[in-house]
Amino acid sequence: MRILVLGFTGYLGAHVAARLRTLPGALVLGAGRSPGADHEVDLASVRPAELAKTLALAAPDAVVNCAGATGGDAVTLAEVNARGPAVLCAALREAAPGARLVHLGSAAEYGPGVAGSPVTESDATCPAGPYGATKLAGTALVTASGLDAVVLRVGNPVGPGAPPAGLPGRLAALLREAGRDPDAVLRLGDLSSYRDFVDVRDVARAAELAVTAPGPLPRILNVSAGRAVPVRELVLGLASQAGFRGRVEESAGGGRSIRSGEVSWQCSDVTAAERALGWRPAHTLDEALATLWEGDGTP
């Protein structure tokens, strides 16, 4: 089986590619802007005809699109998160119409949730910022493409190799800098929001199952832990893993990102993924934080 992974050097892409390489008989090809890519592809600028030539050369049985922008202005986000999937679908229709497309979306597409009510794939979407809006546009383009395609709407990923652009990776860096200094102070934003954190290794396993599942799949599947926890719980859990002896200071209203917007509660129902893929999250938040801190499980 030939599998092309777009964005294979990114946080999610690296884990997905590593997981797929364990499949017996699988040939996993990396596509992206990295010098080590088997196929050089920049979804923000590549033309459909050019990408179609690349796909014809790669001859994939499946394509996993892990490429995406999480930061930057609205134009940058739209180029990668919305234009990219549109170009990819057009190129696939021309060069590899029989290949399955697994596209990584985001739970940010749903927008603010209602406390105590996990969202299902059929619930309304109302993203709170440019990130969620551009990811939702990408999802709409994939689901309307007519291809054998599924969008995995991923919650807040955490685990080994988390990048400093997100809170878990940034917090790990701050804790390493602080060490065990009892006078150290971590000054963070409001930690009262609830998020559905999912181990990045569980995301990779869901992508593997989506690639290999027989027959057509639902157009959208939630991939999260299915449990909302306060962001404060993540912070204190990682601080405990690090043996942090200082104190954490929160500033109300501070530290919000373009991804989180004004979302105070977010949780996804993962029943459909269990039904379609036989997938359930296998790792707890504590396990994800332990591997993040220890560095275990990094591709």
TrEMBL record:
Residues 3-223 form the NAD-dependent epimerase/dehydratase domain. Coiled coil: none annotated. Signal peptide: none annotated. Pfam families: Epimerase. It comes from the Bacteria. InterPro entries: Epimerase_deHydtase, NAD(P)-bd_dom_sf. Belongs to the NAD(P)-dependent epimerase/dehydratase family. PANTHER family: DTDP-D-GLUCOSE 4,6-DEHYDRATASE-RELATED. This is NarL family transcriptional regulator. The lineage of its organism: Bacteria, Bacillati, Actinomycetota, Actinomycetes, Kitasatosporales.
